[in-house]
Every structure is written in structure tokens, then in C-alpha cells.
Amino acid sequence: MLDFVKSVSLLLALLNPFLVIVYLFGVVQSLDHSTFRNVLVRAGLIASTVFCIFALAGDLIFSSIIQAEFASFQIFGGIVFLMIGLQFVFKGTNTIEMLRGESQHLVGAIAMPVLVGPGTLSASVVIGKKLEPLLACGAIIVAVAISLSLMLLLKSLHDRAKSTQEHLVHRYIEIAGRVTALYVGTVSIEMIMRGLQTWAQKFQN
């Protein structure tokens, strides 16, 4: 049970709804609550499916299909995360459009660049190694569900506040983006260091 809770916490921390809602601020502003909910739920289903696949077959995917060490993916993912964190520190919300891109398919654009990233995929593989297959998928679904619920709550709060406190909303987004960038940077360094430690152990053996 403790491993299950830790696994949920790990993936939830990387999904970080308070950070994701900053990424999606343009979408939050432009869509009504019902449309936003439908888009977010569909993106969450795609992300959950991808996470479960990596949890159940992560080692096979890396060793047989990609033919690369998981440690290499951790290092690369850490570098990508680090670049995102640095962009947010120096550019703030100007980074958001770059991260979301120009995709016309909003569900896929939210699922793949935002929810499914190097950090969350790495966490899914780790969860798959810690838990039995059914429990691993259960932990993933719980974490994604909690993250989506919090994002919908934040959307509701935004809709209520934007008419009277719009300047405060924009101020929150600016501050939250820079503060959470510190978290992203910390996670990225941890991913890089774990990848390097794994490679170092291989050379020692």
C-alpha cells in the first residue's frame, strides 16, 4: 500500500496541475468550462494509456524497440526539463506558446507535449518496476484523475475571478510560472544525476 501511495505521489508531482494550468493558460482563457473539461478528459485518457504501456512494457520498449538504455532516456529527459525550467525563469509566460506549439488538434497537443513528457514517462517505468501490473495501472489512473480534477477546479476559479480580478489572475500566472520553474529545474537535475549514476554503475561492473 505504501508503494502504491508513493507511486501516485511521484506521478502526481510530475504532472503538477498547478504548473500544467500555467502551460495551458491560453486554452483556459479561450474555452468555456464544458469544452475545456471534455478536451482535458480526452487528453487524460490518451496520457493514461501511454503511461500504462510504459509501466507494463517500459524495459521491453527501451531494450528491444528503441534499443537504448533507460538511463539515456533519463539524461535526455532531464536536459529537456532543464531547458523548459530555464525558459520559464528568464521568459515567464512568454514560454507558454512555444511549449504548446501550433497544433490544430488540441486534445493531442495537450496530451503529448504537456502531460506526456520525459519526466512522466520515466516515472511510469519506475512505477511499473515497483508495483504489480494491475496496481501500477491503478496508481497511474488515480494520479491522472487527481491532476485533471485539480485543473478543472483551477479553471472554475479562473472563470469566477477573471471578470473582477483579471489583473490578479495574470499576476498569479506570472509568479506561478517562475516559482514552479524552480521545481522543474530541480526534478530535471535529479533525472540527469540518476541517469549518470546508472551509467557509472555499468562501467564499475
Q: Describe it for me?
A:
It is a single chain. This protein has 205 residues and is mostly helical. It has one domain. Helices cover 88% and strands 0% of the residues. It contains ten helices and no strands. The two termini are 34 Å apart. Mean pLDDT is 80; it is low at 98-104. The chain crosses the membrane at residues 6-27, 39-58, 70-90, 106-127, 133-154.
Short synopsis of the structure:
Keywords: Cell membrane, Membrane, Transmembrane, Transmembrane helix. By secondary structure, the protein is mostly helical.
Strand segment count: 0
Strand proportion:
under 5%
Structural class: mainly alpha
**C-alpha geometry:** globular
Distance between the termini: 34 Å
- H/E topology pattern: HHHHHHHHHH
Can you tell me the number of structural domains? 1
Q: What is the radius of gyration?
A: 17 Å
Count of helical regions = 10
Biggest sheet: strands, sense, closure? none
Helix content estimate: over 70%
pLDDT below 50 for ≥5 consecutive residues: which ranges?
Answer: 98-104
Q: What is the mean pLDDT?
A: 80
Spell out the blueprint of helices and strands.
Blueprint: H1 2-15, H2 17-23, H3 25-30, H4 33-66, H5 70-91, H6 95-100, H7 106-115, H8 118-130, H9 133-161, H10 166-204
Salient structural properties:
mainly alpha, 10 helices, 0% strand, 205 residues
